[in-house]
Amino acid sequence: MKRPIVITISLLLAAALCAAGTVAYLTFLRPADHPPADACATPATGPRVVAAGASMTQGSLGADWVASLRASFPTYEFVNAGNNGDTTADLLNRVDTDIVACRPAAVTLLIGTNDVRNGVPLDEYRANLRAIVDRVKGGTGARVALMSLPPLGEDLNAPINRTLTGYNAAIRDLAARTGSDYLALHERMADILRHGTRTPYGFSFPLAFAVAAQHYLLSRTWDEIARAGGRELLVDHVHLTDRGGALVTELAGGWLTGIMGT
């Protein structure tokens, strides 16, 4: 009797490890769809738009709004230059290879959530973001849009969101100073989150993994997962639900329509 039990347990453990490895790869390790390394080495197939940022742009944990834009603008080429965990310092280190080298017609920047979470000083954040924008504008003829940062957790009065206010003010100011366009993502989300009781910030990597497992193994939508946790726009207090992603798609799509005339 013991041997069948041992075999069964071993198979169950192997299956669990395989499932965990699959979730980890799909969520944290796989590259973005149509990343700069693939896109920038070839001529553009249409007006090229680079979406640069961190995990909210990469779209493997939470809604993939870049893919939604790709579906909405089939004659454009969208390069996903999102990279999990990036700060402004990380994006600055790869701005030449992942943005400038792509020769884009338009660039969206959604970067800074990890700066806030990691306690990067506001002056350092502002300087890094300015250097990114200056490098993009100096190295390309692209139009640039800076997006304000979504809340962290859905309680707008939480301490971390009071800290976030300064970073969003820096983004808005920098857009004005550099002649970039400003996309009011935080403001759109805040209009929704002001109504009703909201959950405070409580992100953790175990929660992110659990959320991803429900999506990739159980085929639950990001909205369904968030609702089960009492959230609406942020599936794990940081990354976007389907509804949250739709707000980004709408803002970025409206901007592209306005500047490209299509």
Describe what you observe in this structure:
The chain has 262 residues and is α/β, with parallel strands linked by helices. The protein has one domain (26-194, 243-260): 3-Layer(aba) Sandwich (Rossmann fold), CATH 3.40.50.1110. The protein has helices spanning 2-29, 36-39, 55-58, 65-72, 88-93, 95-98, 113-118, 122-139, 159-178, 185-193, 205-218, 222-228, 242-260, and strands spanning 48-53, 77-82, 106-110, 143-147, 181-183. α1 packs across α11 (205-218), α4 (65-72) packs across α13 and α8 (122-139) runs parallel beside α9 (159-178). The longest helix has 28 residues, at 2-29. The mean pLDDT is 93.
List the topology elements.
Elements: H1 2-29, H2 36-39, E1 48-53, H3 55-58, H4 65-72, E2 77-82, H5 88-93, H6 95-98, E3 106-110, H7 113-118, H8 122-139, E4 143-147, H9 159-178, E5 181-183, H10 185-193, H11 205-218, H12 222-228, H13 242-260
Parallel strand pairs: 1-2, 1-3, 3-4, 4-5
Helix pairs in contact: 1-11, 4-13, 8-9
